[in-house]
Write a structure and sequence with these properties.
about 55% helix; alpha+beta; about 800 residues; 31 helices
Length: about 800
């Protein structure tokens, strides 16, 4: 007896618990089970010491502890159940149980209830009822625990038609709040859609006997998420479910995985299994509940009669395509369908489902997967057409594609898909994993099929444009090789294969050129024309560029980017039509330019104007689309103008998109030289500063009385940064043969207030002149291009250009 009491003490339990958690040989389900067993033994000892031989009292584990799924820092969910009537004794027993748990620093979720109270609370609170479904006896009166379990389970099954819709609503609210686990870079393993809470909800649905989740792979997926949570608790020492970026490498190492990407991929695959099982299960719940509500009315209408032959009425089946029918709101296989003899059937069924906007029945997909035969290479024309139809069906394509993928049919049709499946994209601009982004791009491209002459090539290129991200090196280069192979395999002729490969190779060309290069430079337009090759390919590339950006996320596309890309496409189309791009000449100053320049000379100070830019609305009745703000500045020629202007704009929270600088010839009889700066800017928070305030600060910046560096340093210190996230170092390169009129220096760095100011000051210090700058940001990354010349107004010699780039990079890294 003395030995048992010693083991039940907090010291003995704590030491045993620590030994168990430090055992590297035991992890995963065995460790969770052992931890639950050790905790059971300790709590049972506490219970026995506090209520020796007690009747009418029991200690019950509920929730995750009830399932014996204790992670290292999990809460202990406990219910002290009693019907003895001696509330004072029960209260003392509760204290003897709860205080040792708190003394060890363990989180505790506890309650003390009679069976009637527990049943009533479960009826009022769905979360309590879900926890009690996993009730497990630890100590005391076993009959009391068993009776409660039986009662709660019976109540759950009787109330399922009312409570399951409420459970579904809870799941949907949580998904809207927490997002989808399979796409998040810092996911909540428990709360996000496809996480552990959803897996528990599926157990509750199964317990209702109303519907059941597809079992294949579900337990393994749930176990994998629990393993990751265990490793997260061990590496952080905290009770957390959020897999933060700074902890992912440690968690991966704890699990024996290569790196954080391998970890996220495992998490995403598990979440996808759980999310898909949830979709199928909730659809079945809805179908069962609808049939139950219809059946009594149907019986009343028929006067209690039965269908012909005395059996159940046969469900209606509407033909959709060969071997494919609609039944009860789902797409199923016709009775005569033979998946083992019809290799096109999976694509035909998928295309029919997407076109009808209906889900593919789970059993139909499994039947096709079990009997599927590989398509011959090249594919027959029907298979290619069905794939195009599926890709061109818009939003319904996503769910249908996921149903095929869940059973391995996509990997069988497109073996290269496995390399991008569930692959994370560590870029805040991207909303999706690589594979989902490809499908999302096809969905977006389906809206543009009326504006291109070859919609089939557009859709296939959309599906394949990032397929190279599963391989090392430049994904566009690797993707071109894969796309060429896939396009030939699915049956396109040699010319079409070349077009698809070109689209994949250059899918970033238009947006990168439009936002980082001077479109007035003939070399820019000619280089794009040479890469694209034909007007038809240019048309397709324009549509693919927009679809890709829209499918990436809201930060990747805007009216401003769209207008720049459209301008570039127009110029390239002219070259492809045989028109030579004009050499850039200094355009004659406008009346406004001359007015600003003369005022700058007269006052000896900068003069500026701000003017909002818009484009016509997409709809005739809509408002004009904002493109940004044109900022014109005339300054008496002097050193330091670029960094001064850039610094003042940064202080006023204005983002620079493009900047052009040139000397302006003044009318005869006017002495002096004026710099004209024509900039496009955007307000970070939607409101523009007053021009007078900008001008006043610019005057002070140019005469040295405004400490821009100090002001920006203060702002930089307060700039929100995520703990533990280290940005890659800046990189500065010289773009080869980008222009005949200037040297193009490209800067890639972490975006921050005053970045353009620092770059401008460094270029001034290097003694080069900036003709124009093209600034762009994607998420936290700035990608800026500067057209610079030497003192003679010519491009820099190669060695000097490399030297300037190297010094600029060193300055930015300091």
């Amino acid at each position: 007896m003395h030995g048992h009491e010693q083991d039940s003490g907090p010291g003995g339990y704590a030491a045993a618990r620590l030994r168990l958690l430090n055992e590297k040989a035991r992890s995963g389900p065995p460790r969770r089970s052992a931890l639950a067993g050790l905790t059971d033994e300790w709590l049972a000892g506490l219970f026995a010491a506090g209520a020796p031989g007690a009747r009418g009292v029991s200690l019950v584990a509920v929730g995750g502890y009830g399932r014996a799924e204790l992670s290292p820092r999990s809460d202990l969910d406990l219910l002290l159940l009693h019907d003895c009537g001696d509330t004072e004794a029960v209260s003392k027993l509760a204290d003897r149980l709860w205080y040792p748990v708190w003394d060890l620093g363990l989180a505790l979720d506890h309650s003390v209830r009679t069976p009637a109270e527990a049943r009533r609370t479960a009826g009022e609170d769905l979360k309590v009822q879900l926890g009690l479904l996993d009730a497990r006896h630890i100590a005391g009166d076993l009959g009391l625990t068993t009776a409660l379990r039986t009662t709660v389970l019976a109540d759950w099954r009787n109330q399922a038609p009312k409570r399951l819709p409420a459970l579904r609503e809870l799941c949907e609210e949580r998904a809207a709040r927490q997002g989808e686990l399979q796409y998040l870079l810092e996911p909540d393993l428990k709360e996000a859609h496809g996480g552990l809470r959803d897996a528990t909800a599926l157990r509750a649905v199964a317990a209702s006997w109303l519907a059941d989740a597809p079992r294949e792979g579900l337990a393994e997926a749930r176990g994998r998420l629990l393993d990751v949570r265990d490793a997260l608790h061990l590496t952080t020492g905290r009770a957390t479910d959020r897999l933060a970026l700074q902890e992912q490498d440690q968690v991966a190492a704890e699990l024996g995985l290569l790196d954080a990407d391998a970890l996220l991929r495992q998490v995403y695959e598990a979440a996808r299994v759980i999310a898909y099982a949830g979709d199928v299960t909730w659809r079945e719940v809805g179908r069962v509940l609808r049939s139950r509500s219809v059946r009594p009315r149907l019986r009343a209408i028929l006067g209690g009669g039965r269908a012909l032959g005395g059996g159940k009425p046969a469900p209606e089946r509407s033909p959709l395509a060969e071997g494919v029918v609609e039944q009860d709101g789902e797409v199923v296989l016709a009775r005569a369908a033979r998946p083992d003899r019809d290799p096109v059937l999976p694509l035909r069924a998928a295309a029919a489902a997407a076109q009808a906007g209906l889900p593919l029945n789970l059993h139909a997909v499994r039947r096709m997967a079990a009997g599927a035969r590989a398509l011959p290479a090249p594919w027959p024309a029907e298979a290619r057409q069905q794939l195009i139809t599926l890709l061109g069906s818009g939003r319904p394509t996503v769910d249908v594609w996921e149903a095929l993928e869940a059973e391995g049919l996509i990997s069988m049709l497109l073996p290269d898909w496995d390399r991008v499946r569930c692959r994370p994209q560590r870029n805040a601009v991207h909303l999706w994993t690589v594979d989902r982004h490809l499908i999302e791009t096809a969905v977006r491209a389906s809206a543009f099929t009326r504006r291109v002459s070859r919609p089939d090539l557009l859709l296939v290129a959309a599906l394949l444009h990032d397929i190279g991200k599963g391989w090392p090196g430049d994904h566009s280069v690797a993707g071109e090789v894969i796309a060429r192979d896939v396009a030939a395999r699915i049956g396109f002729d040699a010319d079409d294969v070349t077009v698809v490969a070109t689209l994949v190779r250059h899918h970033l060309l238009l947006v990168e050129t439009a936002t980082r290069r001077d479109l007035d430079d003939p070399a820019t337009v000619r280089s794009v024309a040479e890469a694209v090759g034909s007007p038809g390919t240019l048309e397709l590339l324009h549509a693919l560029t927009e679809a890709d950006a829209l499918a990436t996320g809201p930060a990747a596309w805007s009216s401003w980017r769209a207008s720049l890309v459209a301008d570039l496409v127009k110029r390239v189309a002219a070259v492809l039509a045989g028109q030579a791009p004009p050499d850039p000449e200094e355009s004659a100053p406008t009346a406004q330019h001359e007015r600003l320049a003369l005022e700058a000379v007269a006052t000896g100070a900068p003069v500026l104007s701000l003017r909002a830019q818009t484009e016509p609305p997409a709809e005739p009745s809509g408002d004009p689309e904002p493109l940004g703000v044109e900022l014109l500045i005339a300054v008496p020629d002097q050193a330091g103008v670029l960094p001064a202007v850039a610094g003042v704009l940064a202080m006023h929270r204005l983002t620079v998109r493009t900047a052009e600088l040139r000397s302006l010839d003044l009318p005869d009889g006017v002495d002096g030289s004026v710099l004209l700066l024509d900039w496009r800017v955007a307000a970070e928070y939607g409101s523009l500063p007053q021009a007078a305030r900008l001008r006043a600060d610019l005057v002070r910046a140019l005469d040295g009385s405004l400490d821009i560096s100090g002001r920006l340093a203060e702002r930089d210190a307060a700039y929100p940064r995520r703990r533990g996230v280290v940005a890659p170092p800046p990189r500065v390169t010289v773009a080869p043969a980008a222009s005949r009129h200037a040297t193009v220096i490209e800067v890639r760095a972490q975006d921050a207030p005053g970045l353009l100011f620092r770059i401008g000051r460094a270029l001034e210090d290097a003694g080069v002149s900036v003709r124009s700058a093209h600034a762009g940001t994607l998420g936290a990354n700035a990608v800026d291009a500067f057209y610079v010349t030497g003192t003679e107004g010519l491009p820099l010699p190669d060695e000097e250009a490399v030297s300037v780039a190297r010094k600029l990079e060193e300055t930015l890294r300091a």
